[in-house]
Amino acid sequence: MTLHVSxxxxxxxxxxxYRQVRDAIVSGALRPGDRVPASRELAAALDVSRxxxxxxxxxxxxxxxxxxxxxxxxxxGPHPAQGQRAVGRREDGGALRxxxxxxxxxxxxxxxxxxxxDFRTGIPDRSLFxxxxxxxxxxxxxxxxxxxxxxxxxxxGHPDLRAAIARHVGISRxxxxxxxxxxxxxxxxxxxxxxxxxxxxxxDGIAVEDPGYVVPRRLFRTLGSRVVGVPVDREGLVVHAIxxxxxxxxxxxxxxxxxxxxxxxxxxxxxxxxAERHDGAVIEDDYDSEFRFSDRPLxxxxxxxxxxxxxxxxxxxxxxxxxxxxxxxxxxxxxRSAAHAAKFLxxxxxxxxxxxxxxxxxxxxxFGRHLRRVxxxxxxxxxxxxxxxxxxxxxxxxxxxxxxxxxxxxxxRKASVNEIEALARRAADKGVAIQTLSFFATGERALAGIVLxxxxxxxxxxxxxxxxxxxxxxxxTYPR
Length: 480
Ligand SMILES: Cc1ncc(COP(=O)(O)O)c(C=O)c1O
Known about the structure:
Strand content: 15-25%
Structural class: alpha/beta
Number of helices: 14
Oligomer: single chain
Shape: globular
Strand order of the largest sheet: 5-12-11-10-9-6-7-8
Radius of gyration: 27 Å
CATH architecture of the largest domain: 3-Layer(aba) Sandwich
Helix content: 25-40%
Bound molecules: pyridoxal-5'-phosphate
CATH topology of the largest domain: Aspartate Aminotransferase, domain 2
C-alpha cells in the first residue's frame, strides 16, 4: 500500500512528514511490521531532500514508532503507541459539525451483544439461511453480471428481480402489480428514506404508530419532518387521532410492530378513506407477513386502495437475512419516476450480483421451498410462546393476538412501565434478552409490557428462557 503524505502548503517539511507517518501508525492505518517507504523513495516522491525525510524518520525511530533493519528497510515498530493523539490535533475532534438533526443518533449495537436466550425482535434464524443454495446462486449471478451486465444497472432494479418480485407479491399477498411498479431497494430502510425524500418537505408532518418501529422515526426526523405518534388500539392505528396537518402515515398493518396485531378490515378502509379525504399517502410496511400460522391474511392496504395512495414496502431481511440488505417498494405510477430518481441519486442501484441471485431463487421456486421450511420452524416457536403467555404468564400479561411474523407481545396487567423495565434488566442478568413495549413509545404514552421475538432463539432453548423469565416475573412486587 502506498503511504500518502501531503506537503501542500506546509512549511516545516520534516515535522510534517513525521506527523503524518506517526498519525498513520497511531490511527492503525499502518500496523506493526508494515514497511514504511525507504527515505530515498519518499524523498523522491515528495520532491524534498533526503535529509528532510531522514530527520523525520530519526525522530520516529527515537520514539519507537519505526525500527530500521540494516539492509532490509524501515518498519512500523512492534508496540507503537496506538491511540495516542496526533500532534497538534484539536481536542474536540475537528472544526466541522453535522446538522443538528444528525447529532446524537444512536447506532445499533445491541446485536453485537449476544444473549444466551435471545428473544429480541427483528432477527431471523441465521441457521435456517439456505447457504449452499445461495452460494451456487451467487456464483452463477457473478458470472452473469460479468458477462452480460453493463457497468452500472437500472436504478429501479434488475429487470429479472423486478419481475420476480411482482410475481411473488401477487402470489403471496394478492398484490397484483407489474414489474414497472417495483423498485428494488437496500431493505425497507432505504425504501422509507426514498419515500420520505420524495414526499415530505422539511416541516411536514408524518404520522407513525405509537408504539411503533423506532428507526424510521429517527430517519424521518433527519429529513426535517415533524414525526407525530398516533395511538394504536386492538384494531390498529386509531385513524381519527391522526392530526389535521399530517398528510403521510407510516403503518405496519399486517403485523403491527411491536404489538403483533393485524389491523382490522374496517380500520384499513377507514385509513384509506382518510387518505382520500386529506390528499394523503399511506406507507404500508409489510415486513414479515410471509410467516403465517393461522387465519387467512387480510387484504393489504395496497390491494384495497383504488386511488393510488398506498406505497407498499417489503423486505427480504426476515425471510432471508438482514445482512443481504434487499427489499423493495411498490409505488403508484404517479410516484414511479421520482422514486427511481431518488434511488439513483442515493446509490445508483442495489448490488447487481445479489439481485440476480435473488431473482433466480424466486423464479426457480427455491424461495417458496425455503419459506415453507422456515415457516414450520417458526410456527412451532410461535405456538410455544403463545401457549406460555396465555397460560403461565396469564396473570401478568395479556397476550396480544398475532398469527403472523416473528414476534408476539404481552401487555402488563398490573406492572408499571418502570417495573417492566426493571424486570427486563433482571432478565438480561439471567441471560434472557427481551424488549419492553415502552422502548417503542413515541412520547409520554408508554405501554407497560414485553415483546418476545422467536427468530433469534433456538426452539430447544425456548423453555429454559421462559422458565428464567417466569422467575423474574415472580420477583415483581405489585403495590397493594
Ligand atoms: C417494522 C419493521 N419493518 C421493516 C424491517 C426490516 O428492515 P430492513 O428491510 O431495512 O432490514 C424491520 C426490521 O426489524 C421492522 O421491524
